[in-house]
């Protein structure tokens, strides 16, 4: 993990959590590094949350655990063996935390009354869609099924998860065996993945599943005991726990999750990502992942009859399976992707950083002092409407030709003629570059965006640098306000510093503001090519942005109306002066 952070250009300092001086050491590191926000992970880091409150540092606390309020001591002391925390410390931390993140609404409700109103939010955990999609692209479903012993006409029901009473495999066995023995679904095969033979109660539970099959006259075998030619013959197959599970999702026709006790199992989301309908118990946070009759079915817990009925409906309607599968995939893309999760965390960090907005904004080793209210005219600076005004200027595709360098690099990587790439990019309709390419090319696009040296190699747009210098001469306070690309935030930021130093000189470093949220930066005008700029300044409020947005013309913002527009830098003075009148 350290290497991952360092690859992003981030400094990593490790404080030993096992040391008796951990908290004093951490406090010293926080002070030395001038840390602005603390992110604590798991309920066991309640001590760090309390330290953040003591030091008046905004905190974000990510809770994974589901500990009932009346059992906090039991879980802390006896289950997780935490000698330094107890129920009292945990309750103090919940009360002191700035923001508490839960992976489901249900989990947050477990701790109702322990934290400040509005402090708790839900951010669903994402799943690695890129990995799942890559598996689907590189594997043939018929071959995957054949490797497991299943034929094209087998209706395969998958139950994946540690075989134990909490996961409810007994109900899957009862439901499927009833369908098979009654003749309603003779082609049904049940694959149970997740058996382990360590704990006595789990071994006994596996035996119970076998007994259900035997009493129904249904064949049942352990996968690992089968010869190659016997694979898939048994109507119920029990397989040992597996590290790699993607092949099972691809092979399955239906996923069943009849659990008795869960939070929000990833198997639900992973199954939907493979466009498989899911049949789940209506318990805990599972109803937050799917709607009954849309992405699958929600059934009462411990109800094998309801499970049997839902499976039969899906068996008898391939179209229902397809429609539910597509709806599930769409739900995952919207709610459970890494992209969605990352976006929510970025918004959360921006919101917390907003609490520091009144202080000077720290940029690397520099700090931007508050902007003077009004500059005085002098003999060397002619009177201008720009005098004393704060002009914020974006960099990529506003001050510099980002597209030009991307075109050159993508043509080299893809082997496409540069003229063809330029034709697509220079006339694109979407602001985000990857959205203008076919899905198969998007990973290559993002790799180019993150390639070393791209931002440092950008060339200024004609007249841009002269315009910036002229604004300063006319008494404007010019700030370069730019956002790092999420694929490479650390290197991107460092390269932007290098670009500014190279083309404008060291003094302009003091004018560079790197932020993901431009609404936190106040000014009179913001010259930017992005069609719509939003952020935490107006989050949940009907407040305008703290500047007038002057669009720098690009093909992807042509449809935007009723905003001042700068098409070329030679027109900057008349356009900005006119925009100031509106502001």
Compact summary:
This protein is an alpha/beta fold and about 575 residues long. The protein has helices spanning about 1-5, 20-35, 45-55, 70-80, 85-95, 105-110, 130-140, 140-150, 170-180, 200-215, 245-250, 265-275, 305-315, 320-335, 340-355, 400-415, 420-425, 440-450, 465-475, 490-505, 570-580; strands at about 40, 60, 100, 120, 155-160, 190-195, 220, 235-240, 255, 280, 295-300, 360-365, 365-370, 390-395, 475-480, 510-515, 525-530, 550, 565.
Strand and helix layout:
Elements: H1 2-7, H2 22-33, E1 38-41, H3 46-54, E2 59-62, H4 72-79, H5 87-96, E3 99-102, H6 105-109, E4 120-122, H7 129-138, H8 141-148, E5 155-160, H9 169-181, E6 188-195, H10 200-215, E7 220-222, E8 236-240, H11 246-251, E9 254-257, H12 266-273, E10 278-281, E11 296-299, H13 304-316, H14 318-335, H15 338-354, E12 361-363, E13 366-368, E14 390-393, H16 402-414, H17 418-426, H18 442-449, H19 464-473, E15 477-482, H20 489-504, E16 512-514, E17 525-528, E18 548-552, E19 565-566, H21 572-582
Parallel strand pairs: 1-2, 2-3, 3-4, 5-6, 5-9, 6-8, 7-8, 9-10, 10-11, 14-15, 14-17, 15-16, 17-18, 18-19
Antiparallel strand pairs: 12-13
Helix pairs in contact: 3-5, 9-10, 9-13, 12-14, 16-17, 16-18
Notes on the protein architecture:
This protein is α/β, with parallel strands linked by helices and 583 residues long. It has 4 domains: 36-122, no CATH class; 129-335, Rossmann fold, CATH 3.40.50.2000; 360-401 and 458-582, Rossmann fold, CATH 3.40.50; 403-443, no CATH class. 39% of the residues lie in helices and 14% in strands. It is built from 21 helices and 19 strands. The chain has helices at residues 2-7, 22-33, 46-54, 72-79, 87-96, 105-109, 129-138, 141-148, 169-181, 200-215, 246-251, 266-273, 304-316, 318-335, 338-354, 402-414, 418-426, 442-449, 464-473, 489-504, 572-582, and strands spanning 38-41, 59-62, 99-102, 120-122, 155-160, 188-195, 220-222, 236-240, 254-257, 278-281, 296-299, 361-363, 366-368, 390-393, 477-482, 512-514, 525-528, 548-552, 565-566. The protein has a 7-stranded parallel sheet with strand order 7-8-6-5-9-10-11, with helices on both faces. The protein has a 6-stranded parallel sheet with strand order 16-15-14-17-18-19, covered by helices on one side. A hairpin with a 2-residue loop joins strand 12 (361-363) and strand 13. Helix 9 packs parallel to helix 10 and helix 16 (402-414) crosses helix 18. The longest helix is centred in the middle third of the chain and has 18 residues, at 318-335. The chain is globular. Residues 357-382 have low confidence and may be disordered.
